Amino acid sequence: MDIAVLVKQVPDTYADRRLTGPDLVLDRAAADAVIDEIDSKGVEIALQLTEKHGGEVTVVTMGPERATETLRKALAMGAHRAVHVLDDALAGSDALQTSEALAAALRTLQVDLVVTGNESTDGRAAAMPGMIAERLGLSAVTSVRTLEVDGGTFRAERVVEGGASQVTAQLPAVVSVNEKVGEPRYPNFKGIMAAKKKPVTTLSVADLGLDPARVGLANASTQLVEGAERPAKSGGRKITDDGQGGQAIADFLVEQRLV
Amino acid sequence: MNDRQVLVLAEHADGAVRRVTGELLAAASRLGVPAAVVVGTPGTAQALAAELGALGAATVYAVETPEAGATLITGEVSALQAAVTAAGEPAAVLVAATFDGREIAGRLAVRLDSGVLTDVVGVALEGDEVVTTQAVLGGSYQTRYRVTRGVPVVSVRGNAIEGAATPVAEPAVVPLQVAADPTAPRVLETVPEEAGDRPELGAAKVVVSGGRGVGSADNFHVVEELADVLGGAVGASRAAVDSGYYPHQFQVGQTGTTVSPQLYIALGISGAIQHRAGMQTSKTIVAVNKDADAPIYEIADLGVVGDLFTVAPQLAAALKARRG
Ligand SMILES: Cc1cc2nc3c(=O)[nH]c(=O)nc-3n(C[C@H](O)[C@H](O)[C@H](O)COP(=O)(O)OP(=O)(O)OC[C@H]3O[C@@H](n4cnc5c(N)ncnc54)[C@H](O)[C@@H]3O)c2cc1C
Ligand SMILES: Cc1cc2nc3c(=O)[nH]c(=O)nc-3n(C[C@H](O)[C@H](O)[C@H](O)COP(=O)(O)OP(=O)(O)OC[C@H]3O[C@@H](n4cnc5c(N)ncnc54)[C@H](O)[C@@H]3O)c2cc1C
């Protein structure tokens, strides 16, 4: 089975992430750019499936030039080829626009399954998998913890607020993975060397046949009205437990009228 | 006041409306005339109509099929789409910002070619326009957004909207037909989370969380006992969850639940930035950690450097004694 995995480059959650400019877009210079952890788990699941059932993994991203680093990381893990949706005209895309571009890129591939993360760590829309399924006319099973493919159907354990369910659906489909799906493999030296020679196809707005009047910040379907950084919380009192630490907290809670 | 309808996808279980739906109807009443969309088996909407009216719904759109609940998501999307058509030009569509709700919102936005705003914590009508407030990047920025194309599709965070809509005595129940989606994934079996006696994590006024420092699943009773004395919910760090100390649904942080209680007590949690992303907007933060340099102290109103296994039980006992 052939699989496409969507991978997004995001500001490292370990860093101080910032918004910038009049439109408060992500400040990509403020933090290291990394593959979103959830997407490396998506790559892992796809590799496991192709190791078991045959086929190849294509990783797909939309992002600026340096998002190729994220593609190389996925290729080093073992993905076979990559597609980079790259065009300055796409900068500042919102979810509606991103889904349009990614769906167009996926239409250039012939795959049985599209794997994504359930929620990115920056935008946190948790909407892309459903939006892409909608555009491609596929069914979607989101936030899965386990996934088993059997011929043209698959079975998944889906975990969302309120509980878990066993779900079955037909391929082709879109599946998004939950963070408890399993740990991603580390690329080894051989993988890193091999990744340098794997094919990366670049697709522009024109290549994808997108309407230039619908792409980018200026044509976004959502618009910033205003925004500001919230003052960071600062630390207060710190004491060392002298045997009365628990009592000290109790006194503090009483003083703060919290109990 | 806007006389356009504002559609709310009603969540219900076991014959009752979920709390978040009341919050959504309250939000809707600030934007126009609230209308609820009920997806369920035949008879569901009629049975819920009085309760939805009491929460402010003037109209209840009923999309009923015997199959409801047996398949995933697209039934709700089609129901909302039909309700948008029936409502004429609704001012907005509101859904809960759960995983299901955000998927429904995204799919509906594609069908309507509309902008979608995610995980909003406030809504307002400015002129004729819906403006939402979002707390992004772990609550470190507050932004306000509007939609420039189509019907605004908005997912609203639970426990963020206060107040209530004006009750409506007898809401009109309007049946709508939608075509079934034969390709929708089928749900074979659902195992609901055990709710237990404690308050819901996202809604609790007090949250007591345990981290890797708790050391084992058995030891987590120390966290639970303190939570129970305070009438609070129990939370856990990702390290505690991944070590198998506590179930996944209680994870607080970047990739878990976002909490904003009156009081957050962190026991044996270092305060990694991704944990803070899910709790740093708490009103008061208390931390107990053996390591005096743990980053959690940077945001703790009171920090006690010590062993959680002596400090937490002493605190629980002091609070019990105080109550008498
Ligand atoms: C703080 C912040 C708030 C935002 N709020 C909104 C909003 O309310 N409404 C709105 O329309 N837009 C919003 N955006 C923009 C939106 O995040 C981007 O359009 C984004 O590319 C898609 O949304 P997501 O990453 O949140 O998607 P999610 O649905 O959370 O992502 C799930 C998965 O989709 C895949 N994916 C997502 N983006 C890409 C990509 N560029 N390339 C490859 N795979 C991808 C990944 O596999 C990812 O794990 C926001 C952005 C930021 C930084
Ligand atoms: C993409 C991404 C998403 C993430 N999402 C989340 C998330 O949602 N939530 C989350 O929590 N983390 C998340 N993390 C993980 C995060 O980086 C940390 O690894 C995690 O929060 C650490 O948990 P901890 O504080 O319990 O463990 P540790 O960092 O190991 O800290 C344990 C602490 O316990 C203290 N301790 C030990 N014994 C005792 C004792 N007897 N008494 C008192 N103190 C004691 C130690 O001094 C130490 O400070 C995420 C990471 C990434 C990369």
UniProtKB/TrEMBL annotation, chain A:
CDD domains for the chain: ETF_beta
GO CC terms: cytosol
A single MF term (Gene Ontology): electron transfer activity
Domain Electron transfer flavoprotein alpha/beta-subunit N-terminal: 23-212
One family name in Pfam for this protein: ETF
Entry-linked SMART domains: ETF (SM00893)
Keyword Lipid metabolism: no
The keyword Flavoprotein is annotated on this UniProt entry: no
Keywords on record: Electron transport, Transport
Cofactor dependence: FAD
Subunit-level organization: Heterodimer of an alpha and a beta subunit.
Role played: The electron transfer flavoprotein serves as a specific electron acceptor for other dehydrogenases. It transfers the electrons to the main respiratory chain via ETF-ubiquinone oxidoreductase (ETF dehydrogenase).
Family recorded in the similarity comment: Belongs to the ETF beta-subunit/FixA family.
Protein name, per record: Electron transfer flavoprotein subunit beta
Organism of derivation: Nakamurella endophytica
Name of the gene this protein is made from: fixA
Automatic annotation (TrEMBL), chain B:
Molecular-function annotations in GO: electron transfer activity; flavin adenine dinucleotide binding
One Pfam family matching this protein: ETF
UniProt entry keywords in alphabetical sequence: Electron transport, FAD, Flavoprotein, Transport
InterPro entries: DHS-like_NAD/FAD-binding_dom (IPR029035), ETF_a/b_N (IPR014730), ETF_a/FixB (IPR001308), ETF_asu_C (IPR014731), ETF_asu_C_CS (IPR018206), Rossmann-like_a/b/a_fold (IPR014729)
SUPFAM superfamilies, per database record: Adenine nucleotide alpha hydrolases-like, DHS-like NAD/FAD-binding domain
Residues binding FAD: 212, 237-238, 251-255, 268-275, 289
Cofactor binding notes: Binds 1 FAD per dimer.
PANTHER family: ELECTRON TRANSFER FLAVOPROTEIN ALPHA, ELECTRON TRANSFER FLAVOPROTEIN SUBUNIT ALPHA, MITOCHONDRIAL
Self-association and partners: Heterodimer of an alpha and a beta subunit.
Family per similarity comment: Belongs to the ETF alpha-subunit/FixB family.
Protein name per the record: Electron transfer flavoprotein subunit alpha
